[in-house]
Amino acid sequence: MSGEELAMLYKADEITIDEALEAHLRNLGISAEDELLFVLQMALGFANLGHEDRPVPLSGDRTPTVAEVIDQYSLRPFVEDRSPWI
Question: Using 50, 70 and 90 to split pLDDT, how confident is the model at 82?
């Protein structure tokens, strides 16, 4: 199942965000560790609030922005469509 399909199922409340992200990461060949899932959920939350320039702490000394995390892990389909008025 593609990332877009998983995001649609999540947005329709048919699967949890954990299930969607775990399957999405498996598709990308990435191990879905708890810490990574937490960071991705945090990044999605900030993206949904319009804070894509906010730094996200990753393991080591890396602190990419929310937008960079969204792009690195192909999470754009999971970001809610936002009205320009919000």
Answer: low
